[in-house]
Amino acid sequence: MEKQAVHCIGCGVEIQTEDPDVLGYAPKSALEKEQVICQRCFRLKHYNEVQDVPLTDDDFLKILNRLGQVDALIVKIVDIFDFNGSWLPGLHRFVGKNPVLLIGNKEDLLPKSVKRAKMVNWMKQQAKELGLQPVDVLLVSAAKGHSIDEAMAAIDHYRNGKDVYVVGCTNAGKSTFINRVIKQATGEKDVITTSYFPGTTLDMIGIPLDDGTSLFDTPGIINHHQMAHFVGKNELKVITPKKEIKPMVYQLNEKQTLFFGGLSRLDYIKGGRRPFVCYVSNALKIHRTKLENADALYARQLGDLLQPPGKGRLAEFPELVRYEFSIKERKTDIVFSGLGWVTVNEPGAVVAAYVPKGVRVMLRRSLI
Ligand code: GDP
């Protein structure tokens, strides 16, 4: 007999009991009840907490299309530590006339010495270059609760009485941000109330705002080019910085190589002795060697001296692919998507950056 699909009474998603990390999950025991509610709605209902669910690329397109059809404020969350990797490149083509408020999250990871106003300007410039014209740009730390009041005030200002859709790449901190907003709003009833009522739109959860409009949490969008998809859970902990990043400065001679664990590699080919400033998680070990020894070292030490990836994951870990760059501008970042970046202060350097096949590497104007 074919099983009949069961739907969540909260958001309408089809219930599945196999994968807790995928949309529509409910534990098997929930199926015995008359009215089934998915784990995501359950959490929101009972704990006032949203939970991120990843999307397939097809669903992503559907969501983007929907954003063009609504009349709302779009709040786009990016991870400032992985700005390009968490950017969602197509968004501006889909949002139509809807205003976009750009929020850079994880501000707490930036060195304290970096001026926040300068960072916001940098984000504005990058947004413009990437084709987006946000109504405003803010910098917050959802985890630490920095500037959440400002963000809430900005949302309330720019939404102009309309619904709000919060979008972001998985891991950008969208759930943490929304949960912060919900928590903060409990004490300040005039902005957003927490009287929960699940949305009826499939896979979007609506949190009612005071005036009958809603703040919609959209599922997180997976960017396949991020390092996060090539490492295991424990390894992800190593490469994800937990607190303010302390830049590591390496004075390199030509023909020297830096390994970032076994995940990435930077060869300094030409341009005279100069500093390379590395902004990566301080839990990730950087190993310096001679360029002529680098290949052999990698072949011999991957999974040991050079890790992550750990020994157990070598079979599924992709080979590193080499990209050569000639640095022509002052203050350029070589970005290893999801891992961090290396700043080169002066032009005239030739480098080669290596990343696992599928991960993006790029140059950009220096963030710091
Ligand atoms: P989502 O997938 O976009 O919903 O992201 P989550 O809210 O689940 O957060 C992803 C990861 O980023 C988690 O490990 C969070 O602890 C972390 N995170 C979220 N916000 C911040 C922040 O402001 N600062 C830092 N350092 N980490 C954060």
From TrEMBL:
<dbReference type="InterPro" id="IPR030378">
    <property type="entry name" value="G_CP_dom"/>
</dbReference>
<dbReference type="InterPro" id="IPR050896">
    <property type="entry name" value="Mito_lipid_metab_GTPase"/>
</dbReference>
<dbReference type="InterPro" id="IPR006073">
    <property type="entry name" value="GTP-bd"/>
</dbReference>
<dbReference type="InterPro" id="IPR027417">
    <property type="entry name" value="P-loop_NTPase"/>
</dbReference>
<dbReference type="InterPro" id="IPR048422">
    <property type="entry name" value="NOA1/YqeH-like_C"/>
</dbReference>
<feature type="domain" description="CP-type G">
    <location>
        <begin position="61"/>
        <end position="224"/>
    </location>
</feature>
<dbReference type="GO" id="GO:0005525">
    <property type="term" value="F:GTP binding"/>
</dbReference>
<dbReference type="Pfam" id="PF01926">
    <property type="entry name" value="MMR_HSR1"/>
</dbReference>
<dbReference type="InterPro" id="IPR019988">
    <property type="entry name" value="GTP-bd_ribosome_bgen_YqeH"/>
</dbReference>
<dbReference type="Pfam" id="PF21516">
    <property type="entry name" value="YqeH-like_C"/>
</dbReference>
<protein>
    <submittedName>
        <fullName>Ribosome biogenesis GTPase YqeH</fullName>
    </submittedName>
</protein>
